[in-house]
Design brief:
This protein has 260 residues and is of the alpha+beta class. It is built from four helices and nine strands.
Length: 260
């Protein structure tokens, strides 16, 4: 009987010990799980907001622009300096003159003999006549002369040849002719202007005689004939023609006793 009671006591002791061990292990596992969850929650919070300051407000761009007005102004100035026009232009600037080809000259000069005239620097005894020479000559052994006549009120300006009053020899105020093989006041061939632009760039009084400087561009002259008194020249239908891209003169340094 005592032995049976002893065994029962040992059984209850073992059972109680096992139960106590089970309870202790369960409590330990629950504490570990709680600690792990707590750490995980804290880590999550730290990742979402590293600063931990959930009450901070975003930067105010408006306040920044107001605090730094110079920045906005500098940016506007940089845009102006980038090459875009700002509307502030110099209206007094005039376009440079161009030497673009004259389509009418190129068309009308087709088939004409091109001539070259060295710059004329010697004036005659009178203001209204300027004589130069063709080089090379286009005729025979005698000289070829280009004659520029300036009539009336001689003043600086640009004048069209071969039109208006300058269309005929009798009425022209700015007249250009070429005498081929000229000698003793006559020539074998005469040519009169039909196209070109004459520009007087300077007018100067040299001891009582008017001297000038200027140029003729896109000059075309056609063959003409004269009357027995050489008082008029008329174009010959289907006659020959000659042309020069530019003729320049400057007689402002010619004394008044130069002769003709």
């Amino acid at each position: 009987m005592k032995t049976s009671n002893f065994i029962e006591k040992i059984f209850f002791i073992l059972l109680f010990s096992a139960l106590a061990c089970f309870v202790a292990c369960s409590s330990s596992n629950e504490e570990d799980t709680t600690d792990t969850d707590t750490v995980s929650d804290e880590d999550s919070t730290d990742d979402a907001d590293p600063t931990g300051d959930t009450d901070s407000e975003p930067a105010d761009d408006t306040d920044t622009a107001q605090d730094n007005p110079d920045t906005t102004t500098d940016n506007a100035d940089s845009a102006d300096d980038s090459g875009e026009p700002t509307g502030d232009t110099d209206s007094d600037t005039e376009p440079e003159p161009t030497d673009e080809p004259d389509p009418e000259f190129e068309q009308n000069a087709e088939g004409c003999t091109m001539i070259e005239v060295p710059k004329i620097t010697m004036g005659g005894a009178y203001a209204d006549e300027i004589n130069g020479y063709l080089s090379p000559a286009i005729g025979g052994n005698a000289i070829d002369i280009i004659k520029i006549y300036l009539m009336g009120n001689i003043k600086e300006g640009t004048y069209e040849l071969g039109t208006g009053l300058n269309e005929t020899y009798m009425n022209c105020e700015q007249c250009v002719m070429v005498w081929v093989d000229a000698e003793l006041g006559t020539a074998d061939e005469y040519y009169f202007q039909t196209h070109g632009t004459l520009t007087i760039t300077e007018v100067k009084d040299v001891e009582g005689i008017i001297r000038t400087a200027g140029e003729i561009r896109n000059l075309i002259l056609k063959q003409a004939e004269t009357n027995e008194y050489m008082s008029d020249f008329t174009l010959i239908p289907d006659g020959k023609c000659i042309a020069a891209e530019i003729v320049e003169w400057d007689t402002t340094n010619t004394p008044n006793n130069s002769g003709d």
